Amino acid sequence: MAAEREKLVLIGNGMAGVGTIEQILKLGGAYDISVFGSEPHPNYNRIMLSYVLEGSKTIEDIILNDLGWYEDNHITLHTSTTVTRIDEQNKLILTDNGLAVPYDKAIIATGSNSFILPVPGSTKDGVVGFRDIADCDAMLAAAKQYRTAAVIGGGLLGLEAAKGLVNLGMDVTVVHLLEDLMERQLDRTASSMLQAELTRQGVKFAMGKQTVELTGEERVTGLRFSDGSVLPSEFVVMAVGIKPNVQLAKDSGITVNRGIVVDDYMQTSMADVYSVGECTEHRGTCYGLVAPLFEQGMVLAKHLSGVQTPGYEGSVVATKLKISGVDVFSAGEFTETPEHTVISAKDEWKRTYKKILLKDNVIVGAVLFGDVTESASLQKLVKNSTEMTDEIYDEVMGTSCCGGGGAKKGMSVEAMADEEIVCGCNGVTKKAIVDAVTENGFTTVDEIKACTGATRSCGGCKPVVEQILQFVLGDSFQQSAKQGICSCTSLSRDEIVAEITAKGLRTTKEVMHVLDWKQAEGCSKCRPAVNYYLGMIYPDTHEDEKESRFVNERMSANIQKDGTYTVIPRMYGGVTTPEDLKRIADVSLKYDVKVVKVTGGQRLDLIGVKKEDVPKVWEELDMPSGYGYAKSLRTVKTCVGSQFCRFGTQDSMGMGAMLERKYERLDMPAKFKMAVNGCPRNCAESCTKDIGIVGNDGGWEVFIGGNGGIKPRIADAFCKVKTDEELVEVCSAVIQYYRETGNYLERTSEWVERMGLEQIQTVVMGNDDNRKELAARIDFALAQVSDPWRKMLDDKNTRTALFEETQV
Amino acid sequence: MERSNREYTIGAVEDFMLQIGRVVHAGEVELAIFRTSDGAIYAVRNHSPHPKGGPLAEGIVSGYYLYDPLHDWKIDLRTGEVQAPDRGQAEVYPVTVEGGVVKVTLPAAVANLN
User: B19: distance to nearest CA of chain A, Å?
Assistant: First the structure.
């Protein structure tokens, strides 16, 4: 284990700080990490709070890193703990509950607080900000109890809060000091379109109103404005802005202006103390949006991990409103002055608006309303101070001739810098996505989502992720729709089987080598599959690969969640004898079996056998394996039949036992169940079996493709036969055809639907020669199988390697 | 507290089948030992980092990766790191092979569990 690691303390358990830690972990920075958070929650996505309010997400949904994540990464988390001072002299972090934690490096990421207007009455009950889960909870509670609400502030946050409260059934008025909503992000045209749209959605507005007092006794009852008018309101949300939370920095003697002053590497005025996020002030700017905080975190993470990086140079901020049905976007400069050249398009019918501002022909800002599909490329163009060209104009204004759009969209993605954040919610860069595609061979947005987290939260970046995917895959994007059997290969099951036969491939290793597998030794999906295909193709010569078998098949017993095993002896046709029962009871007692369970397939599970006892249990039972674990014939369920039942017309027990003996042990694409009924009353439930057989007065009816499991399916009537010999031949042919054409892990219920019932009927019933050949092939394969328990008991080496544990 | 690491001799190379895990109890610690197809031997604590736990020794080994037998998590045998989209860390311990004899070193904190 590594020697003493440096101690890194993060103060503030929010998105900026934890995002930085995540980057440090990815870069392999070797620190002992502790995190302090004032809130009782693990790290959550603050920008998603409006979805919680809206009701489309719960608090759990917006948790970014649950407690398990801290544990997994060996991070010590102190929730509900506020850091009060950084002691530079002794290099200690001091907290409100008396902790003194040493640090080598510290990061202040204390974020910001709601700015509460300093007007009389602002501390009354029923007045909240909109910053954290507690505020969100207060709003949800208020909506249950009160009817009227006022939101002070017509900015991003205020509008989201207002829309959330409207959705919760409140009568909401937005109070705004100026005449235009979101005046810091939108021009007058977009602003008025936004107000019109929100009015349509039920939000009321009081524009140009300055609040001078909140009225009421204990609890707020209304707002008084500077013009003397009043607005009654039982609940008030203050969303007039945020102020960087700099108290700790101030108290510790760190230089603070509006925010904590940092340089381009996020270093504060105190040695070894850094700061990121909304609490910082970089080159005179404090940011209140998500993208800058990830960009800052990335620089700091690299710096702390000893990775070369250019400094942080500030962010171009873009705005998007998270209200469903209201698409607003802006980036860079948006208010026109005489020195701007303005390109704009307004469509009052479609309610869309687009404006691009140029200064000396350079794109410096953009506003979009109603249709924000161009937002990613515009943000890019603004950020890079791109010069306007005919081509770009055609692209962003959508005036190019039809069909040209797709290819051009790719261009802006190509020009995107590696470090650019694509998914703002989860801080995923373009490079992370490109790497996910090139290293893992991903071809779908879902795969990228699972691997990187991009698109996992609000989904706004999905079009850009798709464009990146398209750009990286290039021409193969179309073909990529074709899925291989797993991510190790793009070949389908049929192609693999054809290649094995054509090239005479003999082992999984050979198959993967010759067919150019992406992962040389495959994975837990393709290895068992290829091993099965090889065994099906070469039943007599293929040497089964234990190392390519799932644990259950390798051990010939079912593993349980605690690491013990279930042993299931055969009970042909569900029939046993008193002698066998006695032996099962004796062995169960001797080896302390936890539970003896009668299964749905009419046999006995001996549950909870210790791993090292499994071979002895087999030996002493001295019964064949029931293959309760295998992709092969499990059981043949039977009714009592003509031997005893007064309705029975056929000997179902005898036929069931015979079929079970005949087909046992042979590998199939998936588990396989049969049933035999002595009469059409169908007591053994043939309709939910892979092959169900129903006896009648003159012979047998055969049903195939039934399933009672997770995807229930009633079996299809396949054929009727007169004699027992015909019945066996039909069963043989169907099973062998399934073995030869089924995808690994594909149940017959899916196989029948994929192949088509008629196709199977044609192959098996349409031609006697075909049927006989299939039956002959399965008989040949069946001649090769042997009981695994016997085999294992005779092979001391394998038995030791698989079941015995060493103590040293 | 005892600060020194502890070395355990766990057997001969041939005791471990290629790509098939084996359980070894070193003191109080249960290890899963794997021999990859290139002959290298790795030691992991026989406990899945998956929240539901379970053994690791019975997983499928591909290259330097182990597929957790109960949850199919993909784990790097060299570092213990769980591969995306899952996250976590299995505990891995250094292994040395000298003259066909396999030894595992457990750090003091782990070796002194008992």
Answer: 6
